[in-house]
């Protein structure tokens, strides 16, 4: 059980690192945080349960492997997008609580708050992963 949790959290750590890279590249782009919409559209991808096992078994090994790798890659992309959506929503609500939206860009205080919120969120996630790895 702990091994499964650790694997899941190692994957989350990898996703966290990717999120930090994406976020730092796009954070200073004034159109990234639109107050009227969320930054990413969430996509639903195929999962193994949605693929007929008989259809999968009828494929040759190379095709089956390619399909499974594609599904795994799309699921990873989906997890990254969902994580970005979650922390963006959480931090935006925290930093703009009860504020009137007056422009289509962030002021300096909002930008600093969002940056600090993201860094605390990601650092906490990394610490949790490291603590779980230390328990092995």
Automatic annotation (TrEMBL):
Entry keywords, A to Z: Chaperone, Disulfide bond, Membrane, Mitochondrion, Mitochondrion inner membrane, Protein transport, Translocation, Transport
Give the Tim10-like domain ranges. Answer: 69-133
Gene Ontology terms: biological process: protein transport
- Entry's Pfam families? zf-Tim10_DDP
Where is the protein found, in the record's own terms? Mitochondrion inner membrane
The record ties this protein, via InterPro entries, to:
Tim10-like, Tim10-like_dom_sf
Checking SUPFAM superfamilies in the record gives: Tim10-like
- Membrane as a keyword? yes
| Domain of life of the native organism | Eukaryota
Topology relative to the membrane, per the entry? Answer: Peripheral membrane protein
Q: Name one GO cellular component term.
A: mitochondrial inner membrane
What does the entry note on its domains? The twin CX3C motif contains 4 conserved Cys residues that form 2 disulfide bonds in the mitochondrial intermembrane space.
Protein family membership: Belongs to the small Tim family.
Subunit and interaction comment:
Heterohexamer.
Q: What is this protein called?
A: Mitochondrial import inner membrane translocase subunit
Q: Which organism is it from?
A: Clavispora lusitaniae (strain ATCC 42720) (Yeast)
């Amino acid at each position: 059980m702990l091994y499964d949790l650790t694997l899941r959290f190692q994957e989350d750590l990898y996703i966290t690192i990717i999120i930090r890279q994406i976020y730092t590249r796009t954070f200073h782009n004034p159109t990234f945080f639109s107050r009227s919409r969320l930054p990413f559209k969430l996509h639903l991808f195929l999962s193994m349960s949605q693929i007929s096992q008989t259809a999968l078994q009828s494929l040759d090994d190379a095709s089956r492997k390619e399909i499974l790798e594609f599904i795994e890659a799309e699921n990873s992309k989906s997890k990254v997008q969902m994580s970005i959506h979650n922390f963006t929503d959480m931090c935006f609500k925290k930093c703009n609580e009860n504020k009137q939206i007056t422009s289509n860009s962030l002021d300096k205080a909002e930008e600093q708050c969002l940056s600090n919120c993201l860094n605390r969120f990601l650092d906490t996630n990394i610490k949790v992963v490291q603590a779980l790895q230390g328990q092995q």
